[in-house]
Every structure is written in C-alpha cells, then in structure tokens.
Design brief:
The chain is about 45% helix and about 20% strand.
C-alpha cells in the first residue's frame, strides 16, 4: 500500500492510503466467491449462479464489504508503518471503489503527543507533618461528645445560645405571605411545634435563632430575617422577612462525661488508651494527607516543567466531563440554574484548564511508567475493581461485566498503572523533613 502522512496540527494527522489495483481485485474476488456460494438467484441452484451475475446483483453490498476489509487493514498498516500512537479517529473519506482499480481513502486522527520528560527521579520535596498535641486530642474528644450530646428539658430560665427551642412561627416577606411568593417558599412561611437550635451554625433561617436568645417559654418574639443574595430559594433571595415566634419549650445540650461507660462505648479500656488511639489515628491521617500533598506537588512540578501539546479531541472530551463535574458541584452547593447559566463562559474556561492539567499529567505519568517498566498486574486490577464496586454499591462481578461491555477495563488498568507510577515517584523522591 502507498501511505502518506500529512501533519495538520500539533497532534493531528491526515493519513492518505492507496490500495493497489491487484489487492483490490483479490479482495473483490474473495468477497464475490463468498456471495456466490450462498446466493439464491432465480433459475440457478444455490451456489451455482455465474460469478458475474452474482457480482452485478449484489454489487453495493459487495463493495461495502470490500471497503470494510480494506480500510481497517490500510489504517492498521499505516499506523504501524508510521509508528503513530493514535488516540481518536475523527473522520474517514473514501474514493469510489471499483474492481481492478486502485482504491484511495484518507483518515483524520489525533495522536498522542511526542515530548521530552524532565528529570523525574529523585525530586526534592520538603515535608512537614505537625505533631499531634494534647489539645488536638481534646478537640477530637469534644467533637465526639458533641455528636453524642443529648438535649434535656429546662425550666426557669430564658433561651441561651446552643439551646434547642420549640416554636410556632409565622412570617411574611416584603409584606406578602410566603405562599403567595412561590410554592417552594411556602414552607418558610409558618410551622408549628418546630424545633430550632439557637446558634448561627445550625439555624435554618439567617438571624432567626439569634432572635430567640433571651426569650422565655410562653413569650412571643418578633424576629427579622434577611435572606442572603445567594439563598437556596431564589424567590426570596436578598429579601427581608418578619416573623412572629411563640416559644413553647427549651432544651439544653448535655455532653456525655468522659467516664468508664463513655470510654467503653468507644471500644477502649481506659481514657488513656482512648487518647492514645486517637493520637495514632490523627498521626496516620496527617501522614496520609502529607503524602497526598507531596504527590500532588510532584505532579504539579512535572506538568509545569514539561512542554507538550494536547490532542484536541481528548481535550474536548475531558472538558465536557469537567464541565459536568463543576455543574454538579455547584448544584450540590445550592447554586441555582440561572446563576450557572450566567457564568457559563467562566465555567467552561475553568473546566478547560482543569481538563488540560489532567490530560497533561496523565501523558507524563504514562511516559514515566513506560520508561520505568511499571505495569498493572491482573491482581491489582481485580483489587481496584473490588474497591470501585464497594464505592458504587454493587458486586465486583457485575461491575466487571458492565465494564467489559462498555470497553472500560482498559481504563481501570491505566488508572492502576498511573497510581503505581505516582507511588514510584514518591518512593524515589528526596523528601526532606523540616
């Protein structure tokens, strides 16, 4: 075959392939023979019709099958001969195919970038892991006690910050009933026997809890609430509401004492043993976090010091996924659809930058893996599938079957290989503890 490669972009190539006439004829003859062996044509027994008649009757199908053989074969030969690392086939253009004549076609594709790696072995990194102090352990114990706190009824005093308060409330926003503003806002307008924690961290309406502090059971309080500009319910965002709240009961938070019962419930034999376990867990967590920071810093250093082009098709696909991730993240944080649309260009810009960094780091890590002969073993791939199955709440067998159907097992192997490569970089780095 005659093969010519045209460079049309940093990572884009146009393959021009011409199949010689004799090879075309040979393929035509093979396909026609196949049809002739099974063709049913009136007046002839199956398999005994003249080849020329069979060819004329099924010409379109025969041509399609010949193309279906010649194009993939020509593509594979061209890629192998020119040593191209193809990542995406973008377009295929074919000339007319005729028996006994040369057949030409062209394929547009993106290829992996060719680049030089910077020095990656023995990278110098500074590391500092803070020691676990007694105060850190005290804070953890306090959080555990907070999570196990109980609220007890109290009488004879007013509401204090941190209390749980039972109220009946009713309000208006800009002089209107909430139900008249929007159906979604109606639930903000009134409630009976509603329990609210009187602190800013846990309040469901901004400023509402603070307005209850100092009130006694049986007292009616007038509370003003100004909704933030980015409030989840957009119909009242930036508006001011007036509430009338009847205080009906007060409960105060009581933290469990660090006694034998508490220590036992935490699976420890003594307070000292519990504190030691907390210290060990915190030390490991800090070490793990520091390792992750170092690994990210190494990858960042490599990407900043490596010049490489990114295939356009790969960037487009990765950007689309990054946009989806950003939109999902913004939605989960309560940002409305209108605001997301208004910032569409910024989102796409940020997503494109994120995508480019991801792709660049993957190409660098793959090249390092190849240079250091780092591979993903079958056991490692299976272990990763088990981990993913747990995350997706399915069985490893079902997940593997699904991945095989969607041709995704290669991605898992690539992911394992990249993770191992990052670990190799860490193990071979010169980490100076400060």
């Amino acid at each position: 075959m005659n093969i010519r490669v045209e460079t049309t972009g940093p990572c884009r190539r146009q393959l021009h392939v011409e199949v010689p006439a004799d090879e075309v004829s040979k393929e035509f003859a093979d396909v026609v023979n196949g049809y002739a062996g099974v063709a049913r044509i009136p007046g002839f027994r199956p398999g005994h019709a003249p080849r020329d008649l069979v060819k004329r009757k099924f010409l379109k199908d025969i041509v399609d099958e010949v193309k279906g053989r010649l194009v993939p074969r020509g593509y594979q030969e061209a890629v192998k001969k020119e040593k191209l690392d193809a990542v995406t086939i973008l377009d295929v253009k074919e000339q007319e195919l005729k028996d006994g004549q040369p057949f030409s076609f062209s394929i547009q594709l993106d290829v992996a970038p060719d680049f030089e790696l910077p020095t990656y072995k023995g990278m110098k990194i500074e590391s500092k892991v803070a020691e676990v102090a007694d105060k850190d352990i005290d804070d953890v114990l306090k959080n555990i006690r907070e999570q196990n706190a109980k609220y007890q009824d109290v009488t004879g005093r007013a509401v204090q910050t941190g209390d749980m308060v039972q109220v009946d409330f009713e309000g208006t926003c800009d002089g209107k009933a909430f139900k008249d503003i929007s159906e979604k806002a109606a639930s903000l307008g009134q409630a009976k026997d509603f329990w609210v924690i009187a602190d800013a961290e846990n309040e469901f309406l901004p400023g509402f809890a603070a307005g209850l502090v100092g009130a006694n059971v049986g007292e009616k309080r007038q509370v003003s609430v100004t909704f933030p500009e980015k409030f989840a319910e957009t119909s009242v965002a930036g508006k001011t509401a007036q509430y009338s709240a009847d205080v009906k009961a007060i409960r105060e938070k009581q933290l469990p004492a660090i006694d034998a019962e508490f220590v036992k419930s935490m699976g420890a034999d003594s307070e000292a043993a519990l504190r030691e376990r907390i210290k060990d867990d915190m030390a490991k967590m800090r070490q793990d976090n520091e390792r992750s920071r170092i690994e990210n810093e190494m990858i960042k250093t490599l990407t900043q010091s490596t010049k490489l082009d990114i295939p356009e098709s790969v960037l487009a696909e990765e950007t689309q996924q990054a946009v989806y991730d950003l939109v999902r993240s913004n939605t989960s944080r309560g940002i409305g659809e209108d605001e997301i649309k208004a910032n569409k260009d910024k989102l796409i810009g940020a997503a494109s930058q994120t995508a480019a960094e991801r792709i660049k780091s993957r190409y660098i890590l793959r090249k390092i893996a190849s240079a250091e002969k780092i591979v993903a073993t079958e056991d490692e791939i299976n272990k990763r599938i088990v981990e993913l199955a747990q995350r997706y709440r399915t069985t490893p067998d079902k997940l593997q079957d699904e991945m095989e159907k969607n041709n995704q097992l290669g991605r898992v192997a690539d992911e394992v290989r990249l993770i191992k490569t990052i670990g190799w970089l860490y193990d071979n780095a010169k980490i100076e503890t400060t």
